[in-house]
Specification:
transmembrane helix; mainly alpha; ArsP_2; transmembrane; 296 residues; single chain; membrane; Arsenic efflux protein
Amino acid sequence: MSAFMETLFDILFDTAIDGVKMLPFLFGAYLLIEYMEHRAKNLHRALGGPFGAVGGALLGLVPQCGFSAAAANLYARGLITTGTLLAVFISTSDEAIPVLLANPGSLRLMGQLLLTKALLAVAVGLVADLIFRRVRRGKTQVERGPRGEDHHHHHHSCSSCDAYRGRHPLLRAAAVHTLQIFAFVVAIMLALNLAIALIGTENLSRLLLQNSLWQPVLAALIGAIPNCASSVLLTELYLSGSLTFGSVVAGLTTGAGLGLVVLFKQNRDKRQNAFVFAILLAVGIGAGIALQLLGF
């Protein structure tokens, strides 16, 4: 057997072993997530009021993309403010938390990540509401519908996040979601291991702009891609040492799951949608660069 084939076999074997080791932790994480999500009701009540951004930040920490999609729907219907929507989007980490939970040695990092994103989400959300309420001081609730009427909450479903929710037992829903993300994780781990073997650690670091203030910008742009794979990729790159903490925060701040897709689809004001996205991108990049300058 040639040296290349031996290296390839070792990479495949190591990736498979690492994947199998994390599978039970991943399933346990999604079982907990599914249970928490089934218990969540009346989101518009939890996100309403002058401190809706605080509730939005806490809700967004629950590691799945359904809440960001639901928040986008509520925003389009005028039931939550811009600050609350931003708080949900900023605190959302999509699939990063389950991936970290599947790596028991990463629990401290997960705590740091959740705390950083929660504080950032609350701060940005409250400031945004303060600014926009002053600008539109003629309205008692900034983001109400065109005639000021209330709307019933409508929960958005998406194939990658919610397709099995409400129609299948809890265990089956958790198992399906686990297998979906497990496939993403293994594929990305394999790709990273092959990249390191083929192009080398130093060349991969150069490609990812390591030790550069441009890396958080690159991570933020990757995070903005509305797909579960982007959050998995960012998390695995951080765990492999290829991304700084500031960069992974930048990427996971802009990574609002399918919330942005739902926002652009459901909200008719496209300029408003673009403004929300621009704020999200600016916050992600700014926070990432600030953390990197501080040595995180």
